[in-house]
Amino acid sequence: MLLLISLGAVAAVWWWLGIPANLAYAPIDPNRKVQCISYAPFRNNQTSLSSATQVSREQIAEDLAQLAKITDCIRTYATDLGLDQIPELAAKAGLKVIQGIFLDRDRQKNSTQISTGIRLARKYPETIIALVVGNEVLLRKEMTASDLAATIRSIKAQVTVPVTYADVWEFWLSNRELYDAVDFVTIHILPYWENVPVRAEFAAAHADTIRRQIASVFPGKEIVIGEIGWPSEGRMRESALPSRINQARVVSEVLDLARREHFRVNLFEAYDESWKREIEGTIGGSWGLFDSEQRRLKYPPGVPISNFPLWKLQMCSGMALAILVFAAAWPTLRRKPRESGFVLWFAVGISATTAGILFGVAAQKMFYESYGAGGWLLWGSLLAAATASPVFGANALMSGRASPSFLELLGPKGYQTESVLATMHGLVLIVTCVIGTATAVGLVFDPRFIDFPFAALTMAAVPFAATTLLNPPKKGIRPMAESLFAGFFFVAAIYIGFNEGPANWQSLWTCAAFMLLAVTLWRARA
Length: 526
Description:
Layout: H1 2-17, E1 36-38, H2 57-67, E2 73-75, H3 86-93, E3 96-101, H4 107-123, E4 128-135, H5 145-156, E5 163-168, H6 169-173, E6 185-188, H7 203-217, E7 223-228, H8 244-261, E8 265-267, H9 277-284, H10 311-335, H11 341-369, H12 372-399, H13 406-410, H14 420-445, H15 454-470, H16 480-500, H17 505-522
Helix pairs in contact: 1-10, 1-11, 2-3, 7-8, 10-11, 10-12, 11-12, 11-15, 12-14, 12-15, 14-15, 14-16, 15-17, 16-17
């Protein structure tokens, strides 16, 4: 009966998680193209951080042919690394270009960017509809406003197309001397990255409010939203949740608003840029409407939008794991029956149900949040430990075995356990504690781009807590290693919870898992 209840709970939760979004407007409407969209051509191991990167004409042409089906305009950010080929290829694809000129502290590089941008604007006046001189250079504090204004004026004198500068909207308010230098004002509004993050449901309204505010400060100038979008994967910031449904909602509502209010908007961005994950985490590489590797549209017209498009496979995998957990408990109980059978089976059921529900979530998070060999090793190891924990936990519960201490695995010969099952169970605990500690350190000291492994940590922690509660360790001394881990998890959970705020449920859930691990480790005896 408990097995059937567990499987029913797994199926019900996954059915709920798989429910598609009910959006008033599709993010990509086959009957109406988007106005403009940011485009960077980098794929696979290509990165704008390396001067050795050279993007081929064939690669760019392939992308532009695809983008021409959904938009009439693209925005670029630089003229090097092969990006100077874009205007010519865009003209062949029937696309207009808002050409970017990238500026930073390197004056020689700036000079090359500027001269190339001017050359392209003169050569392709029918294709390049504007030059963007500098992108968030004031935000990065790499130029002064006066130097930037002088650069813009110098370029304006040499081209016939409109010239602008693009930055986060607050930096226009604090650098109003740029007003006279530009032909129109280009602002970036990224609700997820606001100082006070904005929920996806309110992103379009927030963008409209900001646009009107900027228009009142810069009368007589067209206000163009040069970047707006939402990430499809990654960690929460307060109540701002990255997800596929939220990304589709924000894009849809912003495009609808722009059509109704008749203002220009450029979506950020066309393709996921996986190289950004190295410096910006999962969030940095998840803003595209197309995925990075396969160049597939995330939201094909007519296809329901779900945060878990493979939810049926994830549900079946979770149900299989739940059955495996019950199967691991049954033969042990038959060999060594216990008096409190229902309580033990109930604990097994809790572990199995938790694992069955969260396995698909943890696997999806591992797929999207792992970057490079190190990332796959880290999150793959945690998922493996989280999957093994309820299986070994069920065996330990029914056999009356307490959770092994670190001393039983790593101590002198006289203290080490001879049980293979206990050894493997202990290794699962060590992997969970080590990776959990590394994650907690990141969330305490440099949390901006650190993901919350709430699903895998919970899968691992619940069976250990159940085993410690129902099969308490024999009396003995409190081991130092477990005590240190417990103390760190406890303090880290409190700090992270307050630092991230009460609106961030991913943070609160992760902190709860840290607390559960802390209590479990504190009860350890050797």
